[in-house]
Amino acid sequence: MNSKAESNLDSVRPRRLRRTPAIRSLLSKTYIHSNNLILPIFIKEGLKNKTPIPSMPGVFQHNTKSAEKLIEDALEVGIFSFALFGIPDKKDLEGKNAIDPNGVLQSSVSSIKDKFQDAVTVIPDLCLDEFLIHGHCGVLNSKNQVDNDATVAIYAEMAVSLAEAGADMVAPSGMMDGQVKAIRQALDENGHSDCSILSYSVKFASSAYGPFRDAVEVNLTGDRKTYQQDIQRSYQDALWEAQLDEAEGADILMVKPAIFNLDIINKLEAAFNLPIFAYQVSGEYSMIKTCADAGYINYTDTMYETLNSIFRAGATAVLTYGALDIARHLNA
Ligand code: PBG
Question: What CATH number does the domain containing 62 carry?
Answer without folding.
Answer: 3.20.20.70
